[in-house]
Specification:
The complex is a heterodimer. By secondary structure, chain A is α+β, with helices and mostly antiparallel strands. Chain A has a domain at about 360-575: Roll (Dipeptide-binding Protein, domain 3), CATH 3.10.105. In chain A, about 35% of the residues lie in helices and about 15% in strands. In chain A, strand 2 and strand 3 (about 75) form a beta hairpin. Chain A is globular, with a radius of gyration of 27 Å. The two termini of chain A are about 50 Å apart. The mean pLDDT of chain A is about 90. Helix content of chain B is about 75%, strand content about 0%. Chain B is flat, with a radius of gyration of 24 Å. Classes of the chains: A alpha+beta, B mainly alpha. Chains A and B meet through helix 1, helix 11 and helix 18 of A and helix 2, helix 4, helix 5, helix 6 and helix 7 of B.
Chain lengths: ~600, ~300
């Protein structure tokens, strides 16, 4: 043991003076140390998709609109003022600031935006968030369409847009049109390419150069610094969406230099200097899985108001590690907290602990294609027999809000309770079902399974709900867990009866939650379908008036509450630690904290 | 000896090819793919992405092209981290894991060997009991308990070290110590056991009878033989430290290969899984060769071949 003592005491001597922590040093250096969750797969705005990617990209790039740090309402970003909007609400004219510059000193031009949206929508790039741009006229056509000799078709939905053969198409009768649709998709694995039913030539994916042909509603006029955007439908939330990174610009000469027009795996985002951005900060160094450093961008138009000298992003995906780091003064802010620590932190670290409303909902899906969950009464019984108040108060213990509807409150949209905890009614519904189906129905209810992806937190909730079902309905539900990727494919194949999920909204419009449930939607995964619901969603998309939109959303919510394809459980809270020296940081439902407004100052 | 090493390395090639083949098909058997995310994308877009990475080809074609590239030393692009190749990611993270492993081994040996020797020398005395109880505690205390305890004491408490990271030299102290102390416990016990066995043998009695000093008996006559079990342990343990440092790397947020080893499987980052598995396989093969060489040197009874 002697050598052990020697080694330890040597170590003590070697480090006897205590160096300042990052948080202490931050007051001097104005460098923010930011816990950022798992390492994003990319910080190219057209490739990255995670919350972590959003945090970094929003520091490095800026869109036409920025956001107010408190209200998140759109304010001019690269655009020098709010755009002029045509009376029909479809044409937006933006004027780009004269002072807007890229981090290498180049001016930001309207054509840079056209180039960026062109790249985002180019089908060969395969951008995952391309659909964010479908608000723009013909954007969807370019992204998902097929072309034949100068024409463009869209045929993944029943809605056709033609640029060629329009006259021929107009002449077709309904059955002929259906036959045309059928012929557009060759049998799987035949290797044959679909051909155009009119000119009999092969249908191809639009190439980079078909941009003009597709006639996407973006026109840049560099001479008078304007960008004219035409929308598919008037959308009162379009300006707010412009602050999503999928609308952010990339520097065209850089993309040229790396030949990254249609390739997402180039290295332009890896090194300082290569990543030319137009945001308040610029890339200084990226050691993957270790730290991404940014420093202030000397060419940013609003540099006088940027207070931080840099932000360091730490991709710490383990919640306990992140919490330890914040408590030791290594990080100013964490991305999340371990659920089992919330109670402790509420009591011991009230000055750092944050539990803020967050635009997300935690829910269980029902597979409505199989009995017994094909019966709305059963789904309703399972839903109203869950005591969400108890769950939130005694199991979650993080200030979450019970969810009696799908969309959380956001902006002017209010989350109404559309049903309530009613075990007696639940029991009655189930008895009614059993009376009708007899022993077969009883048997079905004995074999219900709940699947969730492996995690302590999900298990805890599932166990609580399992016991509520047992107590209130007399139904024993089995719990099954699966690893995340396995779980996702299980859910997609509808190989479940009840499955858990969470959904985080991308912008403050209930449609980000509601449009999940349209017929055949990629994220529906319940088998549930309602023509009336689909119609309402389509109407909402065309509705220019926000109040009228909200009325439609409420109707959608009522349909969901009546048919109950999902069992909503609670609305999220964002739990994290934030050091009191961080100022200019405000709670927002999207968890956006525009870093250009943030600064570090000792608390009095 | 040169010929022996070359021969062993040549034998490793088919082993690696078999490992590559098995791993290739095993990761593909797991449900879910690298590009499945929570938010679904239109089918057309997913097809474009998969086509870009050659995942639209039949599996046997993908296998052939992967093996073809592998033979030329190309491990392919990471499916998860856009723009990074597997070789780059391993190249940046393996040295970190190796450094951590080396430091931990150094600590393990510099604490474990003397402790084991002293315990053997003063067999069944309070010193022996003290050292061996310490070793027992070391073995029983897993790294995921030891690590946070050290952070609590020296980082959150005293503030001498950063609680995590691998940015400066001082960041290496706590993780190496956590891992080193754990292995020091094993080394101490193995050293004591090995030494006691050797010390009871006839040639030691002869040496003592000839009047050799106790110091000379221990260091000159007994040590070489007594260390054999330690050497046999260290080789595989070193490979284990490198590949099994996932826990340490996660606790201390170290950008090493251990983290990639686990997360690449969870991400279904096929090429990265294969790359890390092959790297570890190679590492274990090399470590085993080194162990065999050292053992042959320490123990005249074993010969190469």
């Amino acid at each position: 043991m002697k050598p052990l003592c020697c080694t330890l005491s040597l170590l003590f001597l070697a480090a006897c003076s205590r160096p300042p922590t990052n948080v202490e040093a931050g007051l001097e250096t104005q460098v923010l140390h930011f816990g950022n969750g798992a390492e994003p797969k990319s910080i190219d705005p057209h490739v990255g998709t995670s919350v972590g990617a959003n945090n970094i990209i929003s520091a490095l790039l800026e869109g036409l609109m920025a956001e107010d740090p408190r209200t998140l309402d759109p304010v001019p970003g690269v655009a020098e003022r709010m755009p002029e909007v045509s009376t029909d609400g479809r044409v937006y004219t933006f004027t780009i600031r004269k002072s807007a510059k890229w981090s290498n000193g180049d001016p930001v031009k309207p054509s840079d935006f056209e180039f960026s949206w062109h790249r985002m929508l180019n089908p060969e790039l395969g951008a995952r968030y391309a659909e964010f741009l479908y608000d723009i006229k013909n954007a969807r056509r370019y992204n998902l369409g097929r072309k034949c000799d100068g024409g463009l078709w869209l045929f993944n939905t029943r809605k056709v847009q033609t640029a060629a053969h329009a006259a021929e198409w107009a002449k077709l009768s309904e059955p002929e049109r259906n036959a045309t649709f059928a012929s557009l998709k060759p049998p799987e694995d035949s290797g044959a390419k679909p051909t155009c039913p009119f000119c009999k030539k092969n249908l191809e994916v639009p190439a980079w150069d078909d941009w003009k042909l597709a006639d996407v509603g973006v026109r840049a006029h560099d001479a008078n610094r304007t960008l004219v955007v035409t929308l598919e439908n008037p959308n009162p939330l379009f300006l707010e969406k412009l602050n999503h990174y999928s609308y952010f610009p990339v520097h065209p000469p850089t993309i040229d230099r790396f030949n990254a027009h249609i390739r997402k795996d180039t290295k332009w985002t890896h090194n300082a200097g290569d990543y030319v951005g137009n945001g308040p900060f610029m890339l200084r160094n990226w050691a993957i899985n270790a730290r991404l450093e940014t420093e202030r961008n000397p060419h940013y138009w609003d540099r006088a108001n940027v207070k931080l000298n840099g932000v360091y992003f730490y991709p710490i995906d383990k919640k306990d590690t992140e919490e330890r780091a914040a408590r030791a003064g290594f990080l100013h802010s964490t991305q999340s907290l371990p659920a089992h620590r919330l109670d402790f932190l509420t009591r011991k670290w009230p000055t750092h602990y944050k539990a803020e409303p967050y635009l997300g909902v935690y829910f269980y899906r029902f597979n409505v294609t199989e009995p017994p969950m094909d019966d709305a009464r059963v789904r309703r019984a399972f839903s109203i027999s869950v005591d969400r108040e108890q769950l939130v108060k005694y199991v979650l213990r993080g200030g979450q809000e019970p969810a009696y509807g799908l969309s959380p409150g956001m902006g002017k949209f209010e989350a109404k309770a559309r049903y309530k905890f009613d075990p007696a009614e639940a029991k009655r519904l189930l008895e009614e079902y059993i009376a009708e189906k007899g022993d077969a129905g009883r048997k079905l209810l004995e074999n219900v399974e709940l699947k969730y992806n492996t995690s302590e937190d999900h298990l805890k909730i599932a166990e609580a709900i399992q016991s509520m079902w047992k107590e209130n309905l007399g139904v024993e539900v089995a719990l099954l867990n699966e690893e995340w990727k396995v779980f996702m494919s299980t859910v997609e194949e509808l190989d479940y009866q009840i499955s858990r999920m969470g959904w985080i909204g991308d912008f403050r419009d209930p449609i980000t939650f509601l449009d999940l449930w349209v017929t055949g939607g990629g994220n529906n995964n319940t088998g549930w379908s309602s023509a009336k619901y689909d119609d309402l969603i389509a109407r909402a998309r065309r509705e220019p008036d926000l109040a009228k939109r909200f009325t439609i959303y409420n109707q959608c919510e009522d349909i969901l509450a009546a048919e109950m394809p999902v069992l909503t459980i609670y609305f999220y809270r964002k739990h994290y630690l934030l050091h009191p020296t961080v100022k200019g940081w405000h709670p927002t439902v999207l968890d956006h904290h525009p870093l250009k407004h943030v600064y570090l100052k000792a608390t009095d | 000896m040169g010929r022996y090493v070359v021969k062993r390395l040549l034998q490793a090639i088919p082993v690696l090819l078999v490992i590559a083949t098995l791993t290739f098909f095993m990761v593909r058997l797991a449900p879910g793919g690298p590009f499945d995310e929570e938010k679904k994308v239109p089918k057309e877009i997913k097809e474009r992405i998969e086509k870009h990475y050659g995942l639209d080809q039949p599996l046997w074609k993908q296998y052939l092209s992967y093996m073809g590239n592998l033979v030329q030393g190309d491990l392919g692009p990471s499916f998860k981290y856009a723009g990074w190749t597997v070789a780059e990611l391993i190249g940046s993270s393996a040295p970190v894991s190796l450094m951590l492993g080396l430091l931990a081994m150094l600590i393990a040996l510099s604490i474990g060997l003397p402790a084991g020797l002293i315990a053997a020398l003063y067999k069944n005395s309070p010193v022996d009991y003290f050292a061996m109880s310490g070793a027992m505690i070391g073995i029983c205390l897993p790294t995921f308990v030891m690590g946070p305890l050290l952070i609590l004491g020296f980082s959150s408490g005293m503030g001498w070290f950063a609680p995590l990271g691998w940015y400066t030299w001082s960041d290496m102290v706590l993780p190496s110590l956590t891992l080193g102390l754990y292995y020091a416990a094993y080394v101490a016990r193995l050293t004591r056991g090995g030494m006691l066995e050797v010390l009871s043998q006839d040639f030691i009695r002869t040496a003592r009878a000839k009047g050799a000093s106790e110091r000379r008996v221990m260091l000159k006559h007994a040590l070489k033989g007594g260390l054999l079990p330690v050497v046999a342990f260290i080789g595989p343990a070193f490979a284990g430290i490198i590949s099994g440092s996932f826990i340490i790397e996660t606790i201390f947020f170290i950008p090493g290969l251990g983290r990639f080893f686990v997360t690449s499987a969870l991400n279904r980052d096929y090429t990265m899984v294969l790359g890390t598995v092959l790297f570890y396989a190679l590492l274990i093969i090399v470590m085993n060769i080194i162990v065999d060489l050292v053992q042959a040197w320490l123990n005249p009874r074993t010969r190469l071949e």
